[in-house]
Design brief:
Helix 4 packs across helix 6 (107-127) and helix 7 (137-161) packs antiparallel against helix 8 (165-189). Strand 4 (206-210) and strand 5 (219-224) form a beta hairpin. The protein has eleven helices and six strands. The chain is mainly alpha-helical.
Length: 292
């Protein structure tokens, strides 16, 4: 029925809006602009998530022609816009205070850039810091843990004050990820003679900014063990994240290795233990759309 309605109303983007959540992970509606002349097709200038977060498009998308063509254009623009916003969020991270930065940018990108920064800082701490001022890995990790705990305290204080629903959801998801980052630091501190090649570090989901042929400016790359994935930029909104346990880490490791070897993965276990949600959450970590 939905498909027939979408195909039947292809010239009327407003009638297709209610079905967008079935086509995308979390694009509930598009910001439409009515042209001056009624004969001209409508333009889309941004997207709203189910929780009300708005992300503007880098370029205006003209919604003309068959519905499958303009929906594909919307999908391409979603990825392009998120990629350019990722770059801007990364630049703003260096220049803006953390609490203002969290308010200003989309939740999905805040989590990704926080992970990028955490990976870079942890790698630096394990390697012993800068060449001129070498310190032991233990000392570097201890100072990082101290920073991480004080940042988590700031976030928990912020969530008590924040009234805005979108901001609240954003901070809750960020706390979930940052708590896991703190747990990883605790775990690394217990490892004797830790190095950047230690398995306890390589088994983590690590985010890097790497220059590629397609993106000479750089792109977000996710690594775990010997696997490498380019971030896929599916818009996720502020849909919340799972608490990551050691078992979640093992599931992620198995699934990313399976994907790397072009195989499938199928978590097995009793009902209601979170198999489906774990797979979906790995999709969120990679910025991918998972249909279960």
């Amino acid at each position: 029925d939905d498909l027939l309605e979408i195909l039947g109303q292809s010239r009327n983007p407003k009638a297709v809006q209610p079905h967008l959540l079935k086509c995308f992970d979390n694009v509930k509606s598009l910001e439409l602009v009515q042209p001056a002349s009624s004969k001209k097709p409508m333009d889309a200038v941004g997207m709203f998530s189910a929780d009300g977060e708005f992300v503007p498009f880098s370029r205006t998308v003209t919604l003309d022609g068959a519905v499958e063509f303009w929906l594909t254009k919307v999908e391409d623009e979603m990825r392009t816009s998120l990629r350019s916003q990722m770059n801007l969020t990364k630049e703003a991270y260096k220049k803006t205070k953390r609490d203002k930065w969290i308010k200003d940018w989309p939740g999905q990108l805040i989590i990704a850039i926080s992970q990028l920064a955490w990976t870079a800082d942890t790698t630096k701490a394990i390697s012993g810091g800068k060449k001129k001022e070498k310190v032991s890995a233990k000392k570097g990790l201890k100072s990082m843990r101290k920073k991480q705990i004080s940042f988590l305290k700031k976030l928990t204080e912020a969530i008590r004050v924040v009234k805005d629903k979108i901001q609240k959801k954003k901070i809750v998801a960020l706390i979930t990820i940052e708590v896991h980052a703190r747990d990883v630091l605790e775990k690394l501190l217990k490892v004797q003679n830790i190095t950047p090649d230690a398995f306890d570090w390589l088994m983590q989901l690590r985010y890097y900014w790497e220059k590629t042929e397609l993106c000479p400016d750089g792109d977000t790359v996710v690594r775990q063990t010997n696997t490498r994935f380019t971030y896929m930029y599916e818009y996720l909104g502020n849909s919340g994240r799972l608490v990551i346990t050691p078992l979640t880490d093992r599931c992620y490791m198995t699934l990313t290795t399976a994907l790397h070897l072009n195989n499938g993965g199928s978590p097995k276990g009793p009902a209601g233990t979170g198999k489906t949600e774990t797979v979906k959450d790995l999709g969120k970590a990679l910025g991918a759309y998972v249909i279960v």
